């Protein structure tokens, strides 16, 4: 009885201005609470606000739950330490209430709940809690993809699945499973009585971005033979790359950019080159197998040539009517970088200031991980990069305010370094890229990323 009374009080607080329940509503909530007496105001600290918001997730009114989720999102973005302390007490409650919102909420509530779960995973970092988030969320997220077609909701679900897999996935099988679910949003498995729904440009962009984000964590040089057959089999690989190539011809610029980034990661990983070499030498001596192998190898080479021409055209595309100059320049700059990478193996080097400290990237995998997380965290990105040790490990970023080298948090980072483009493995791959770049300098046709076989033989 006492809990319901507390929840009704919270509902009153969070129900003000039902028509304005966006993330910014948390500022309104704070304003509403400024009218309480001085003795009450002492009790209303930030921790109690989060407690009240979680209690409000039990309310029947959807708008109340939406506002509560918005309060939680802002709190997790603005004060990472507070969020970490809070989830130590309310981790399971918050996770399961967010999953309930995904199961029964409106599109807006589903979007907010998905984002909250992603933030929860980034806040707790890798470990048992992150693993629990992934295991508990997979089925509700997968089912939510099938209910309704709101692009904003679908994009939030995709981002959530990508982030919780990035943090909580312990092995490549976890990542591959999520990548398959994400891919099926645009390529569903259809039954005889199911009609395919054409996805919007926004959904296609979100799918490709989430898929390529997770692809950056897959080490193609150490995958088991079973996973190679699943992920880099001729049928799946060629279908994926053929589809991405087709997206380069789409009218929507965001789709083209997302597809270009995904292809850059594929070539950087050496996935296509590895399979091309294996296909070229995989014949067991039979005529039919030999012909099939040659056909597959020839198809891959033709596909590479087609993509190179598409990238070259997009790097110099003239602006169409009504084309935003900034968007056009972004596309040109991206595809100039992709073209330089495909022809000469030069990866883009970028740098950005975060609170006076420099964060640098030197590969496509790093850049795409950074851009994805920066977009997901939005206004909370700087705060997380300054305080979130997991993200610091991923990007090799050390704020000057404290020396993180040799600190205890590195033990957690070491468990995850196979996902980081700054790992020893990836640095070795960068050295190999540099060597290949020198070898390719005298060739007429640029080779793609890491070649594992001599294609001219």
TrEMBL record:
Superkingdom assignment: Eukaryota
Interferon-related developmental regulator N-terminal domain span: 24-343
Chain residue ranges for the region called Disordered: 1-39
Biased composition (Low complexity): 21-37
Pfam families per record: IFRD, IFRD_C
InterPro entries: ARM-like, ARM-type_fold, IFRD, Interferon-rel_develop_reg_C, Interferon-rel_develop_reg_N
The Interferon-related developmental regulator C-terminal domain, residue ranges: 388-440
Family to which the UniProt record says this protein belongs: Belongs to the IFRD family.
Protein name: Interferon-related developmental regulator N-terminal domain-containing protein
């Amino acid at each position: 009885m006492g809990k319901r009374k507390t929840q009704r009080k919270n509902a009153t607080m969070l129900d003000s201005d039902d028509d304005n329940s966006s993330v910014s509503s948390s500022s309104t909530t704070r304003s509403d609470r400024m009218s309480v007496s001085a003795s009450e105001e002492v009790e209303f600290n930030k921790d109690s606000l989060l407690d009240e918001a979680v209690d409000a997730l039990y309310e029947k009114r959807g708008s109340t739950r939406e506002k509560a989720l918005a309060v939680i999102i802002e709190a997790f973005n603005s004060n990472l330490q507070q969020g970490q302390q809070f989830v130590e007490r309310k981790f399971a409650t918050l996770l399961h209430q967010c999953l309930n919102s995904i199961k029964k909420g409106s599109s807006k509530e589903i979007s907010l709940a998905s984002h909250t779960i992603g933030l929860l995973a980034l806040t707790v970092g890798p470990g048992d809690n992150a693993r629990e988030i992934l295991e508990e969320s997979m089925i509700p997220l997968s089912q939510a993809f099938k209910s309704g077609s709101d692009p904003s909701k679908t994009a939030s679900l995709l981002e959530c699945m990508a982030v919780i897999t990035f943090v909580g996935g312990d092995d490549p099988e976890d990542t591959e499973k999520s990548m398959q679910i994400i891919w099926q949003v645009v390529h569903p498995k259809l039954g005889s009585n199911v009609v395919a729904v054409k996805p919007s440009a926004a959904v296609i962009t979100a799918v490709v971005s989430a898929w390529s984000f997770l692809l950056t964590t897959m080490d193609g040089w150490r995958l088991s033979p079973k996973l190679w057959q699943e992920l880099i089999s001729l049928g799946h690989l060629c279908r994926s790359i053929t589809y991405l190539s087709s997206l380069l011809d789409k009218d929507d610029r965001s789709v083209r950019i997302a597809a270009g980034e995904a292809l850059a990661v594929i070539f950087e990983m050496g996935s296509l080159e590895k399979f091309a070499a294996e296909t070229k030498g995989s014949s067991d001596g039979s005529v039919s197998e030999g012909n099939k192998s040659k056909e597959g190898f020839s198809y891959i080479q033709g596909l590479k040539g087609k993509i190179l021409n598409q990238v070259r055209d997009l790097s110099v595309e003239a602006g169409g009517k009504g084309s935003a100059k900034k968007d056009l320049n972004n596309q040109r700059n991206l595809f100039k970088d992709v073209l330089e990478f495909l022809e000469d193996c030069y990866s883009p080097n970028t740098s950005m200031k975060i609170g006076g400290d420099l964060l640098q990237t030197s590969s496509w995998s790093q850049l795409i991980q950074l851009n994805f997380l920066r977009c997901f965290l939005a206004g909370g990105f700087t705060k997380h990069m300054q305080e979130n040790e997991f993200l610091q490990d991923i990007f090799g970023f050390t704020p000057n305010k404290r020396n993180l080298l040799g600190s205890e948090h590195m033990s957690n980072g070491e468990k995850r370094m196979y996902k980081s483009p700054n790992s020893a493995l990836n640095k070795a791959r960068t050295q190999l890229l540099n060597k290949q770049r020198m070898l390719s300098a005298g060739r007429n046709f640029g080779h793609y990323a890491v070649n594992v076989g001599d294609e001219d033989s």
